[in-house]
Amino acid sequence: MQRLIHEIFQPAFSNVFLNSMQDSAILPALNGRVAFTTDAYVVQPLFFPGGDIGSLAIFGTVNDLAMQGAKPLYLSASFILEEGLPMETLKRIVTSMASAATSCGIQIVCGDTKVVDHGKGDQIFIATTGIGLVPNHVDWGPHRIQPGDCLLVSGDLGAHGIAVLSMREGLNFSGNLRSDAAPLHQVVSALIEEGVTCHCLRDLTRGGLATVLNELAMTSQTGMQVEETRIPISESVRGACEMLGLDPLYVANEGRFVLILPQNQVQTALNILKQHQVSHQAAVIGQVLPLSESRTPFIHLSTPFQTVRILDVLSGEQLPRIC
Amino acid sequence: MQRLIHEIFQPAFSNVFLNSMQDSAILPALNGRVAFTTDAYVVQPLFFPGGDIGSLAIFGTVNDLAMQGAKPLYLSASFILEEGLPMETLKRIVTSMASAATSCGIQIVCGDTKVVDHGKGDQIFIATTGIGLVPNHVDWGPHRIQPGDCLLVSGDLGAHGIAVLSMREGLNFSGNLRSDAAPLHQVVSALIEEGVTCHCLRDLTRGGLATVLNELAMTSQTGMQVEETRIPISESVRGACEMLGLDPLYVANEGRFVLILPQNQVQTALNILKQHQVSHQAAVIGQVLPLSESRTPFIHLSTPFQTVRILDVLSGEQLPRIC
Predict the structure, then answer these.
(1) N or C end: fewer C-beta atoms under 10 angstroms in chain B?
(2) Do residue B203 and residue A23 have CB atoms under 8 angstroms apart?
(3) Chain A positions in Cβ-Cβ contact with residue B202 (cut-off 8 Å)
(4) Is the Cβ–Cβ distance between A62 and A184 less than 8 Å?
């Protein structure tokens, strides 16, 4: 364990807080509202086109902070290693985490490692917890969603889920299928700096767009109307989904978010989103509606055939261990 | 997953931060130095005399905050569940966590749950991350340790490790073998309130007293002299260790700490420690020495036979999956 810490973790993550090697990292005061979030990562395979469990564990937690408008600052990382995990694999993952953290301007300031016997884990699980600071005037969430608001997605959907699944199942689809895993804090920070009034941001992870919209409609007690043809989905994801019998609207993303904001903010927001590589395919996909008399939140998908399909909540997880 | 959240986690941990069900919990400003710590818990069996993985995941992280003098405030919890884990087991663990958190005056404000396939985990792993506030004048750590300082332990050693091991191996030792798992923040807070000058506190978890003293001697570049007969060890732990061929000084504790402080603070500290149930067996066990000319940090154990044994670092972990 001492060797793991001194030869792998500490050199990779080195910073003044971590290096004190105390029971807790001691951080400076956080003068402002603090965003705090945690996620466990159990993705299989560990390495997939466009990312790995290490970068995912950084970007996923950074994005959960960013969705509240928070500037990501510090991260903790807990590792559960299965006996027999090759040191080379661990090093590759830790190096990827370190480089992802640096690219996000975030520091990994404390950590823990446990080893479980062979057959009692699955190579490596990582839990990361993030701390960020929320700017004073930012207050985003489902409670702000109002009928008349517009729905935007930040880019094409489904690439992460399909990339992981195709790698796991050894499927070889045509096209350049790469995970969309990416940090979103910079584009979010640009929206804040440019003074765009947002009502709610949410990253489209497990369960994809359909699941997230259902959760938001339920919490905000609204309906939502989405136009299918406006939702960006790449040809390769669409093709893979057709072959696998999956609906891309339920497939997980790791670098995409939905943005709900007043109509008069849409053009400014779109201009900013399109200036960032991670969101250059941003599109308006629909709007928020008042509840009908039945008072049941709903997601209506207008199809190209002039019909309306109800996007419901799936009862199970469409794809397991995708993050 | 929605059912898990709404039927098990949310009712048990309910608080205003968690209930917002956002990507991040939004906490009020932390005006003061912030202690931040994380640990993964993989103990087997999940339930043992004196505790379970749930209470351990709370107390362990609370104690890592307390060892820096921090007042514990908020916790995150990430769960990795193995498919097939009975709901009743999960409920028992979550209930135990909730009650442990309440007893520590700490709130579980955000969380995450992942499910892995049967055979790819071991029932349940929990990672908790804690946030606390460090009082202005508190600055504890190995950098403060000085020759002449006294070494105290807060109570009898080895009960946690032996309790878990005996449960796991189906051993039936005589005596009331219960884990010492307990929160330490209250007694630490009393030391601060009474104005005791401490130099370093460290909880005696993995590797026990011997490992922790070695780490502290190494970091502070000192030697340490410990008198074996002064170290409190219960008869039942001593007996079990003899039968198992274990050295209790290397066995893990989850509610014990070492306290290093100037000689003139010892009596006040002991009085306070003895007033708290969790530390009523506190004892002075030795002192910090300057390095000899060889400049190699050391731990010397004076035995009842007037000999001196060197307490070295173990090369492996004495007992796996004890926390």
Answers:
(1) N
(2) yes
(3) 23
(4) yes
Kindly report whether the global pTM for this prediction surpasses the value 0.90. Answer: yes
Are B164 and B84 in the same domain?
Answer: no
> Residues of B numbered 93-122 whose beta carbons fall under 8 angstroms of chain A's beta carbons: which are they?
109-117, 119-122
- Whole-angstrom distance, CA of residue A22 vs CA of residue B142: 8
| Segment B99-109, tens digit of pLDDT | 999 999 999 99
Q: Which of B36, B77, B109 sits opposite A27 (nearest CB)?
A: B36
DSSP B16-33: TTGGG--SSEEE--B-SE
pLDDT in the model for residue B140: 96
Domain count, chain A: 2
Residue of B nearest to A65 (CA): B24
- A294 and A162 in one domain? yes
- Residue B14 and residue B130 share a domain: yes
Domain termination site, one of A110, A134, A158: A134
Question: For residue A323, is it within any domain?
Answer: no
Tell me whether 0.90 is exceeded by the ipTM. yes
Give DSSP secondary structure letters for A159-219: HHHHHHHHHHHT---SS---------HHHHHHHHHTT---SEEEE--TTHHHHHHHHHHHH
Same domain? For A204 and A179 the reply is yes
Residue A264 and residue A148 in one domain: yes
Report the b/e string of B282-317 with b at 16+ CB within 10 A. bbbbbbbbeeeeeeebbbebbeeeeeeeebeeeeee
A233 and A299, same structural domain? Answer: yes
CA distance B145 to B198: 9
Q: What is the pLDDT of residues B22-67, one digit of tens each?
A: 889 999 999 999 999 999 999 999 999 999 999 999 999 999 999 9
Contact residues, chain B, for A111 at CB < 8 Å = 38
CA-based nearest distance A222→chain B, Å: 17
Q: For residue B164, which amino acid is it?
A: V
Note whether B129 and B237 are same-domain residues.
Answer: no
**Host domain of residue B275:** 142-310
User: Per-residue pLDDT tens for A119-147?
Assistant: 999 999 999 999 999 999 999 999 999 99
Residues A8 and A105 in one domain: yes
> Of the candidates B134, B154, B173, which is a domain's last residue?
B134
Nearest to B29 among A33, A37, A70 (CB): A33
Q: Has residue A264 been placed in a domain?
A: yes
